[in-house]
Amino acid sequence: MPLPRRGRGSRLDASRTAGTSLPRVTARSPRRAGRRAPSSSHAQRLTRRRHSSDQVPPVPEPQTDFRLGRWLQERAAGDSRDSRQASRARMGSRLRVCSWEEVVIPCASDDDSESVDLQLSNLEDIKKDPSSLELTDSDISDIPGLPWESLTDCFSHPTHQQPRGEVIIERLIGSVQEFFNCELKGEFEKLTFLRSLSSLSRTLPYDETTESFIQSHITDIVHILNLLLQEEPPHSLLSPMRQEVFVTIADFSYQDVHLFFGSEDGADLFSLVIKSMITLPSVTTLAQLQEVTASRPNNSECLYRQTFQAFCEMLQSLVVKDPHLENLDTIFELMDPWLQSVKDHERERATASMAQVLKCLSSHLSLKLPLRFQRLGHLVALMALLCGDPLKEVAEEAAEGTHHLLHITMRLKYLTHDKKNHQSLRKAMKKCRELLQLYNTKQFYSCPSKIAQVFEVFLNSHELCQFVMTTLDGLKNVRHPCTQQSAGELLITLVKNAESRFEKVPEIMGVICAQLSTIIQPSIRQQVINTVSLFVSRPKYTDIVLSHLLCHPVPYDRHLVELWRTLEVELPSTTWILWRLLRKLQKCHNVPTQEKMAYVAVAATDALYEVFMGNRLRAATFRLFPQLLMTLLIQIHHSIGLTMSDVAIPSGLYVDQEVSSEVTPLCLAIQATKTLLLRTLCWQEFSIMEKNKGWTLLEGKDCHLQGVSLLASALLERHHLLAHKVMYLLVPLLNRGNDKHKITSAGFFVELLQSPVARRLPNVYSVARLKDWLHHGNNLFRVLGLKGLCYLLRHQEMREDIKRLLPCILDSLYETDESIVLLAIQILLHFVPSMDFTTLAAMMRALFSLFGDVRPNVHRFSMTLFGASIKSVKNTDKKGVENQVLDSLVPLLLYTQDENGAVAEESRRVLSICAQFLKWKLPQEVYCKDPWYSTPHEVGTICKFFGKKCKGKVNILAQTLMYTKNAKLPIRRAAALFVGMLSKYMDHSELKMKGTDWIEYDLRDMLHDPEPSVRILASQALFRVQKVKSEPEPRQRVCRLRKLMGCLST
């Protein structure tokens, strides 16, 4: 609504005259006198229906005019009748507000459907001539909705009559001062005071006395106006007091005396003025109240129209001269809550008045730097939301205001844009013009999302953020689903078009996550989620969005679960997003192991699980399968044995809820790994893990590597293409990350070396790397190194490289770790036939030390390798290992009685190999599987054989006595029995020569064995040894008998 002329013939003068019976004089307006009102448009007619009184009954015509200098002239000349006639004559050519005529508030014309012509050529002229920065009438006329008549003419400064005399001014000042000092103030006195103030304000341009008086009483004036409004009933409109206050404030604003600005009282007055107008009941309610009271003849609807018109013109008077947009900023700040009011009539008034402010500002735009209005994005978004208001009147007013706001924005951006980058502004203007050729004002309120497309080209990053935040607030409007729908459309449209020009993205994400729980409509929820999808798909914002989404409690609530599972991302961006999420987790594995696990690791794991469940990023999941699988296996390793108390949870994260004891980092990692296998169609691998308790193995601290190996073997067997991708991924990554990272990666990598593809790997990534692991301080790496060498032995071309590692592998035989020794034996078995004699002899000595090892498998396979070594000895080298073979006979013989059947059987087999090496034929009793103590006669045969064969070669009795203290009961029992039997068949002279004390000493110790059978056999053996010691040798008796027979014959 354009402002009236501020001359003495303004429309508000007429309204005041109609509203009261107080006398006043209207000012002459030569420029408007007799001017015919322009034809009303459709939009004007709509405005009339909302803000004018059709067919309002006339009220009694005021008897005298009272207000301006004419009243003072009448008082001096005594001719009031002429003034009344002159006033009526002038009002005849104007629109009356309380007659059968309508109150016309000019709005947009019918040709609003036309697009705004950006006048690029005019902008170029402005660039050449900075003095022409202000809009001209021709510029304005090109914009639909603005009349062809120059608005400057209809909104010019007041055209004063001849300057009023000092006497008149003194009377006006006296009238105002009298009111200041008056205690009893009735309605007549109040209205007189306001009109005197208004008349006095018009003498400011030429009278210093008035200026001095006004400036010295600004505080008093503001205080009085504040009191006048406070005394007005808030829920009724029974007098023109509000209207007079608004007109008075407007008159001062015309003279650049702004009562609202410069003090706290003024700011409070401004807030009260807006509240007093906006919060009035609806017109229907006001009419009903008047019918009930019936105390005043005033027509409430007519009075309301006048008051609202005065209110709008008051607001417009603040922006007529607002080059820095400070006043606009203040108006919008105060109007903001009312524009979002839940009451329809309040929202309609605020929207209509704001639209008129914007229209006035666009008509009188004269911008200068610096600009104080920093809430453009908020204003655009709010007007756009109002264009989608369920109340049609609000939507139409907002659309008109938005139309004028676009004009303001274009000029504002031209003034503030970077002069060095003028081309970007031209592009923005061109894009805006193209869009406006498609859209018009009516489409703004029929489809508010068009506004986002039009304004987006002009908004900077800060303003875009304001737009988004304001739009997100619109999602809270649960009472009006259509407003929520508009907010969703605006949001998705702006984010889609603005691309990467946003700031404060974390704050935006925070609001979105908070708002999800309040949005019920599925379509709007999906629009909001799509907005997140657009943000996360922009490489500039991907990490920012993911970081914010990961800062929520796990397991995620149903709203965040829906967000993760329904991300709508274009195919080229899916891999990027999943990769960045994966990197969040991988970075936690690259740092040294800390006391507590990083919360990001747990949150990212749960996020991956939800993404897999949603299956919207399926293509990326297949592409990144190797990285995903290995990262999750490493996360499982890190999570073993941890609870949520072992996680570094950010402070304040679990404010309103407790951490569930059922949720652990390990269970989240396991479920994510399972889901990954299922989503990538690894059904058979999943089944193998289930059948072989692979998931339980993965969760175990000591058996985690077994679970990793099981999964790797299953993948290689069932899905070798994926397995090969994993192997190539791991080649450069095995030495990265912390120990758990390296161990899990190495375990998976080693299992994949079984593949024929492994032969293609360069030596530095295969044999050389495994060699390094053999010297690692962690036994797990030594195990993996030897295991990898075992798998590489399957590839013939790699055996020569592995053979060079034999000295290192031989050293592994002395390790305490059973797995290391067994793997070393397994490798050495492959190279026994090709070993040189020196290496072979050294290996046999190492193996002999393992005979009787408490680890059954080590004992057994050491004998196996020993037997294989004996077989591979060449004839020329047999003499060099004969003693080692002889020394092994007694241990092998005794261990045929081992309680472990596999060890006993292997002992008999290797003993047979040793006999073949020595070219002996063992008695069949050696191969008997029955215990010796049950068949003593067979033991005698064995003892007789070995006593005879080993005579002079090895002290088998001493070797046997070494096993009398063996930890195994069967071995101690066999040793005791063997000593007793062997003493019977040994050379007695040799036994006596060496003495039996050392034998008896060991046997006496066995008499204290906890096992009775051992004690019995030890006592029997001791008896036999002592008997041999005391009895003469049989050969000596024969010699003596021969001597005696020789004497007799002589």
From TrEMBL:
Residues 1-88 are annotated as: Disordered. It comes from the Eukaryota. Residues 767-1024 form the Maestro/Maestro-like HEAT-repeats domain. Residues 72-85 have a biased composition (Basic and acidic residues). InterPro entries: ARM-like, ARM-type_fold, HEAT_Maestro, HEAT_MROH2B-like, Maestro-like_HEAT, Maestro_heat-like_prot. Keywords: Repeat. Residues 173-320 form the MROH2B-like HEAT-repeats domain. Residues 345-578 form the Maestro-like HEAT-repeats domain. One of its GO terms (cellular component) is cytoplasm. PANTHER family: MAESTRO HEAT-LIKE REPEAT FAMILY MEMBER 8, MAESTRO-RELATED HEAT DOMAIN-CONTAINING. This is Protein MROH8.
